[in-house]
Design brief:
This is Glycosyl hydrolases family 2. Keywords: Glycosidase, Hydrolase. InterPro entries: Beta-gal/glucu_dom_sf (IPR036156), DUF4982 (IPR032311), Galactose-bd-like_sf (IPR008979), GH (IPR017853), GH2_Domain-Containing (IPR051913), Glyco_hydro2_dom5 (IPR040605), Glyco_hydro_2 (IPR006101), Glyco_hydro_2_cat (IPR006103). About 10% of the residues lie in helices and about 35% in strands. It has an 8-stranded parallel sheet with strand order 29-28-27-26-25-24-23-30. Strands 1, 3, 4, 5, 7, 8 and 10 form a 7-stranded mixed sheet that branches. A 5-stranded mixed sheet has the order 43-50-49-45-47, with no helix packed on it.
């Protein structure tokens, strides 16, 4: 997916999004990227204003600040909130038959929009898209217009994770004819799919803002990925004045190419309104031809094929860029997850951005799009459960839920429902905590007789006991079942082609409270131990894991049960926040990738589970710091017998280096999906072992340290595979080595390059057991987005050119501007040879 700083539906007139005059000479719809030429200032708690500064959107002001253990809160990553003011001047001359709209994909949060000093609207929720008709507020011809957006994030602990602050997603300006297709007015479905033919059903709303009735034509054309027209249809329409109509039509695609996780093929519908023979409005809608089905006994089917959902949960921050995540940052992260075998994303715990969903469409990820983390009652932002204390800074979405929930939910469904990647709408995440009677009814809590472990114990109360508790415990102001029924109803009013689900933290009660009754799929949160319980007691309900520990035992439970469709690991990537009182730990380390997008050991474990292609990965650890001891035969075994069966979020510590004291006792681990692995130290075999002999799926050797090279070789069916893994003992740090994910960017002010700096020895081997401060210098026209080392304990400023490494490495991210040319990047560290590279910025065509 490429963004352009300019997008016009027809090419007759090109408009700049950088504040140059918007003259509308086209015959129909103009969609303008409105991300550039904004000004911003921050207002602090004393009313002092920062100076106005020029910025581009998306923008997150919190991530530009320093981490603060005194004035910050770990729940939201120890970064500040405040009040931010955005403004932008723009000329716009509307004709008498035109209207203008401004579309925000996300503003965090409590936004108020004004135009030329007049209030346009307010929007409290930070994650749902919204738009305004700004036509009545525009100045007369040739006058400049001033739009202002006030964002109130003084409630800087209003969430349980890092949210960011500001206009952190894209903004577009749309100019339309008064007879037009409204924003989000096209809905494409594929109700019938056969090998030779697919039916495509298109619903198009037509808005007539003229006072008189209008007759016109509606033309629909379908194009394949190569731009070839595969079908079309034109029909007359008539819409009364100041009214809206709905047009439905159906056409077929011959020999359709299906959208699939392995081949995410996209078609495009172009819907056009023709008036007196001329196109006056047009909208392009990407879609995929695909079918989905969940079965209570057999699991999930995509295009008729039974397959497991290999999913991860993702929060919306992108590490050092905060919540304002460039597409290329998401692309790098998603590509790494794809290479691990991941095929699904749960966007937790809020609606995703259009940019992220576009990438999921393009790259082949199944998506669960989630609406809310809070409903009627608030959560404790610091403790994750029901609210423990009440203070201003923790006031969250519950304050607005009764008034805004329907609009926010429906805006999300309307804006997102054409994405083929989306297979589930989640109406809520772990909501049960906030309805105390549901928690009490389970028997896990307030039950003196129960001494079990919540994660690994079945419900202490029987189904009948839970029913009795729910019938006898005092009623509360709001009922979880009634609220769930309402949310599910609103969702189905707009889309019945996806499954409605929720992430249930107390499913034994949710099955009986009315909550699960309205769900098509009941998601279990950390409750894999009751998969069989759920299937036995509620055999007609589809159940699956929707929040799971990133451990082998979780995937094992899925593979052993055909009726479980799959899972979503918590999490795919480390994220900021949910770290209350743990300074300097600013984030949560449960990801397969760290905050800089570097691979962790758990990543390689899941890669061996989710891929058929051979994979090997080596780690080491001194015996005394490891989770192992030696048995009588001298082999490493877990200190806590079968501890792997109850491992939680965080992987045990291991190292990707081979540097220890001479003859120090170490444990060498190999993660692999090969049947057998042989380990070598300096070309001497340390033995060949079978995967079947390791219940925890980790090959292990006890190895007294000797400097040199460790090498692992894999075998499948007795044949050596091409894949292998090795680690060398490194000598003293010698140089800083730079690498980049792409050495050429377009001068579009969007493209991003990730530059990794790694300390190496004189032979070029990565030094991962030693750290140093690295200083970057940048010569050329690019925008610095920041630096990070990936550690959840890194509280160095992101917006800097200096950083102390972690594991001998760090990350620099730069973004193109509008100017072409060469950019030289150098990385210096005291006593080390400087690393440098050349980055080319190519002019736009």
């Amino acid at each position: 997916m490429k963004k352009h700083f300019l997008y016009v539906v027809i090419t007759a007139v090109l408009l700049s999004s950088c504040g140059r005059e918007l003259s509308n000479d086209s015959q129909f719809d103009i969609v303008t990227d409105f991300n550039f030429d904004w000004e911003f200032r921050l207002v602090d708690s004393t009313g002092q204003n920062d100076d106005w500064k020029n910025i581009r959107l998306p923008h997150d002001w919190s991530v530009e600040a320093s981490f603060d253990s005194i004035n910050g809160e770990g729940a939201t990553g120890y970064l500040p909130g405040g009040v931010g003011i955005y403004r932008k001047k723009f000329p716009l001359q509307l004709k008498s038959d035109e209207k203008a709209y401004i579309l925000f994909d996300g503003v965090y949060n409590n936004s108020e929009v004004s135009l030329n000093g007049k209030d346009v609207g307010e929007h409290p929720y930070g994650y749902s898209p919204f738009y305004y008709d700004i036509s009545p507020y525009l100045n007369s011809e040739k006058d400049s217009n001033l739009i202002e957006v006030k964002v109130d994030r003084t409630r800087y602990v209003d969430s349980r994770w890092y949210t960011g602050s500001g206009i952190y997603r894209d903004v577009k300006l749309l100019v339309k004819n008064k007879l037009h297709i409204p924003i989000w007015g096209v809905f494409v479905t594929t109700p019938k799919i056969e090998e030779k033919q697919a039916e495509v059903s298109v619903s198009v709303q037509i808005q007539n803002d003229f006072s008189e009735d209008k007759k016109a034509e509606l033309r629909m054309e379908i194009y394949n990925r190569d731009g070839q027209k595969v079908n079309g249809h034109t029909q007359p329409i008539e819409v009364s004045g100041n009214d809206q109509g709905l047009q439905l039509y159906s056409v077929s695609i011959e020999n359709p190419i299906l959208w699939d996780v392995d081949n995410p093929y996209l078609y495009k519908v172009v819907s056009s309104i023709l008036y007196e023979g001329k196109v006056i409005d047009q909208q392009e809608t990407a879609f995929g031809v695909r079918s989905i089905r969940f079965d209570p006994d057999q699991g999930f089917f995509l295009n008729g094929k039974n397959r497991k959902i290999k999913g991860v949960c993702l929060h919306h921050d992108g590490g050092l860029v905060g919540a304002a995540v460039p597409d290329d940052v998401w692309r790098r992260r998603l590509q790494k997850l794809k290479e691990a075998g991941c095929n699904a994303i749960r966007i937790a715990h809020n609606p995703g951005s259009q940019a992220l969903l576009d990438l999921c469409d393009e790259m082949g990820f199944l998506v669960q799009d989630e609406f809310f983390d809070e409903w009627d009652n608030p959560k404790d932002k610091r403790k994750n459960m029901n609210e423990q204390s009440v203070d201003y800074i923790t006031r969250g979405y519950t304050e607005h839920f009764q008034e805004w929930a329907e609009k926010d939910l429906k805006n999300t469904v309307l804006a997102h429902r054409n994405h083929p990647s989306i297979i589930q709408w989640s109406i809520g995440n772990e909501i049960e905590w906030t309805y105390p009677r549901n928690a009490e009814a389970t028997g896990f809590f307030n039950n003196m007789e129960w001494q079990g472990n919540y994660f690994f114990s079945e419900p202490p109360y029987s189904v009948d006991q839970i029913k009795e508790k729910l019938n006898t415990l005092p009623k509360e102001k709001y009922d979880i079942g009634e609220t769930a029924k309402k949310l599910a109803k609103w969702t189905r009013e707009l889309d019945t082609t996806r499954y409605v689900t929720a992430n249930c933290i107390l499913p034994s009660a949710s099955h009986l409270s009315g909550y699960a009754d309205v769900l098509d799929v009941v998601g279990y949160s950390y409750r894999r131990v009751i998969y069989d319980y759920g299937h036995k007691n509620y055999p007609n309900k589809v159940i699956m894991g929707t929040e799971n520990l990133p451990q082998w035992h979780e995937w094992k439970a899925v593979m052993e049960r055909p009726f479980i469709s799959g899972l979503f690991l918590w999490t795919g990537i480390d994220y900021m926040g949910e770290s209350n009182g743990a300074w300097p730990k600013k984030g949560t380390q449960s990801g397969l990738l760290d905050q800089a997008g570097f691979e962790k050991t758990s990543y390689h474990m899941m890669k061996t589970l989710w891929n058929d292609e051979p994979h090997l990965h080596l780690t080491t650890q001194s015996l005394d710091k490891s989770i192992y001891k030696l048995n009588e035969a001298g082999d490493p075994v877990e200190k806590k017998e079968n501890g792997w069966e109850k491992a939680l979020w965080f992987w045990h510590e291991s190292n990707e280096y081979w540097n220890y004291d001479a003859k120090e006792a170490t444990v060498v681990e190999v993660y692999s999906n090969c049947d057998e692995v042989e380990l070598f130290l300096n070309d001497a075999s340390l033995g060949r072992k079978k995967l079947a002999d390791f219940d925890d799926r980790i090959y292990k050797w006890s190895v007294p340290f000797v400097a040199g090279e460790l090498r692992a070789e894999g075998y499948i069916d007795g044949k050596k595979v091409d894949a292998g893994a090795q680690i060398k003992t490194t000598t003293a740090p010698y140089a800083v080595q730079l690498s980049v994910d792409k050495d050429q960017l377009s001068a579009n002010a969007y493209d991003v390059a990730h530059i990794v700096a790694q300390i190496v020895d004189e032979e070029g081997n990565p030094v991962r057991h030693s750290n140093a401060e690295i200083s970057f210098s940048i010569t050329g026209d690019v925008r610095l987005l920041g630096v990070d080392n990936g550690s959840a304990r890194n509280v160095q400023d992101y917006r800097s050119t200096k950083i102390v490494t972690d594991k001998g490495r760090c990350l620099l991210i730069v973004q193109s501007n509008f100017n072409a040319g060469d950019v030289r990047i150098a990385a210096e560290s005291e006593g080390l040879k400087t690393g440098d590279l050349l980055l080319k910025i190519k002019a736009m065509d």
